[in-house]
Amino acid sequence: MFIIIKTPEEIALLREGGKHLARIVRAVAERVVVGISTKSLDEYAHKLISDYGDTPAFLNYKPDGAPHPFPSTACISINEEVVHGIPNENHIIADGDIVTIDIGLNHSGCFTDHAITVIAGTTSSPEAKKLVEDTQIALMRGIEAIHSGSTVGDIGYAIQTFVEGSGPPLVVGEVVPSDGTGGVRMGQRGYGIVRGYAGHGVGRYIHEDPFIMNEGKKGSGPKLVPGMVIAIEPMLTLGTHKTKVLSDGYTVVTTDKSLSAHFEHTVLITENGYEILTKE
Ligand code: MG
Asked: Is residue 1 part of a domain?
């Protein structure tokens, strides 16, 4: 594991890029309306990035093990799609769709990563709305776990503890029974915490060490030190934690087709805590 500590110059650029990215993701999310294609949302994202003089980090990026480079600017993932959905002109947003916009940005060689989930139109179940709200809260709980002396495991612990819930359960819909493979399954809130995909170091590259799990033990893992920059990104589902990759080589879906939501911020570790960089 090699954790890159960013220089003050890099941090200044990451702060600028993070601001751009927050505005871009919000603007694209505001265009999520019934009848629009995900391809058209992607083109809009590309235009906004170009307008800033920045470049998309995901376009033509080839992760280890991927069959071919990622073909688009944004990852747009709908309903049971968890992450890495590929925009497509034939994929038209329908009323009630849960739509995640996830974009990586390269601003003068410094990378930030940010995602939000919104619901299209007016028809959506209370369970879907609550899933989206709670995934955003889970992200904030993970971020708020960062203070002087905390570790990567503290972030996962905070997210997991929130998702599992304590005290009176806030169950939405039915809690699906454990599938018996061990570890976190369904929290008292009724959600699955997606396995195998998680946050990461970011800044000089789009993916750096360390891996930031969405579950974990308090005090475990690498220590968070000032100058580290990490992307925290809980992905929750209304069912299983299990996923599979579709034949396009990228789109990750829940194996039980349950709905999924995803929020992500790029966060700087500071002397006393944290600073969210992907913020307007
Ligand atoms: Mg990310």
From this structure: no
| Kind and range of the H or E run holding 38 | helix 38-51
* Cα dihedral sign, 119-59-67-212: negative
Task: Look at the chain and report how many structural domains it folds into.
Answer: 1
**Would you say residue 55 has pLDDT above 60?**
yes
The average pLDDT across 223-237 equals: 97
Q: Which domain covers residue 100, as residue numbers?
A: 8-276
The encoded tokens of residue 203 equal 């800044």
pLDDT tens-digit profile of 186-209? Answer: 445 679 999 999 999 999 999 999
Tokens (6 digits) for 67:
């069959």
* Residues within 5 A (CB) of ion ligand 1: 113, 231
Q: Do the Cβ atoms of 130 and 105 come closer than 8 Å? A: no
Whether 97 has a binding-site annotation, put simply, is: no
- 214 Cα–ligand 1 center, Å: 12
Residue 219 CA to ligand 1 centre (angstroms) = 23
CATH number, domain at 131? 3.90.230.10
> How far, in Å, is the centroid of ligand 1 from the Cα of 168?
32
CA-CA distance, 201 to 5, in Å (whole number)?
Answer: 10
